[in-house]
Fold this sequence. Notes:
This protein is 51% helix and 0% strand. By secondary structure, it is mainly alpha-helical. It has a domain at 30-85.
Amino acid sequence: MLVALRLDEAVERQRQAVSMGNAYGRLKPGVSVVQARAALEPFFAHFLTTTTPAFRKECRLEIDPLNDLMRRQARTAAWALLAPW
Length: 85
């Protein structure tokens, strides 16, 4: 698991781009997304203690199957490419 270094809120607020961290993993056979989320929540809660209170409100833990993520991205790309001009 990758954890970001402590962020400087003043610097991050001035950036034009969004800073974000992503982690990818593979579920063991028989483990559900709900179980994976429950297992990762303590690590995420600890991560939140390393951020400023303002950033805590903006951080979230999302667990999505890769299949769903790929479909969402493909759908967005299809709308952008195939939409009538």
